[in-house]
Amino acid sequence: MVVDPGQAQPVLDSLQASGGSLAAILVTHHHHDHVDGIPELVARWPSARIIGPADCAAKGVREAVDHGDVVEIPEAGLSLQVMATPGHTQDHLSYFCPHCPSIRTRRCFVATHCFWQVVAASSTARWSSISIRWAG
Predict the structure, then answer these.
(1) What proportion of the chain, given as a percentage, has pLDDT over 70?
(2) Judging by beta carbons within 10 Å of its beta carbon (0-12, 13-18, 19+), is residue 14 exposed, middle or buried?
């Protein structure tokens, strides 16, 4: 599983070195530095699940998820809670694994980063994103 593959090559290199394959791609939002690697990865692993915001269908997302959904990645033994965390973008999602709290998205978890890197969200959305308490 990979989150936000802005480039395919680092993922390809890592999976080749480990002898692994790609079961799923999690997408947090639509910015190119989070999705540009998807086409090349899908060309190599056409059956990989591509999971993310509905607004990212044009970027390759095949399974749209939203706040409150649970994503099961059986190949990795993960059950991830989906949380809408608008702040950096309106469509931003975060994925939380209650049993492995070190797995989080790059944005909207550290309050100062989320607050200052706002692109398309209101101050209310920013505050909501940085005020989230993880369930679980």
Answers:
(1) 74
(2) exposed
Q: Is the pTM higher than 0.90?
A: no
Higher pLDDT, 85 or 52: 52
Which residues lie across from 95 on neighbouring strands? Answer: 82
**In the chain, which ranges are continuous DSSP H helix?**
9-18, 32-35, 38-44, 111-116, 123-130
Of 94, 38, 40, nearest to 69 (Cα)?
94
Measured distance CA(71)–CA(87) in Å, rounded: 22
Place of tokens 């939203």: 66
Give the number of other CB atoms < 10 A from CB of residue 83: 21
Residue whose C-alpha is closest to residue 42's, from 51, 53, 33: 51
pLDDT of residue 32: 86
pLDDT of residue 62: 96
Q: Is 131 exposed, middle or buried (0-12, 13-18, 19+ CB in 10 A)?
A: exposed
Residue 7: what pLDDT?
93
Beta bridge partners of 134: none
User: At which residue do the structure tokens 């994503």 appear?
Assistant: 71
Tokens at residue 121, please? 């969200």
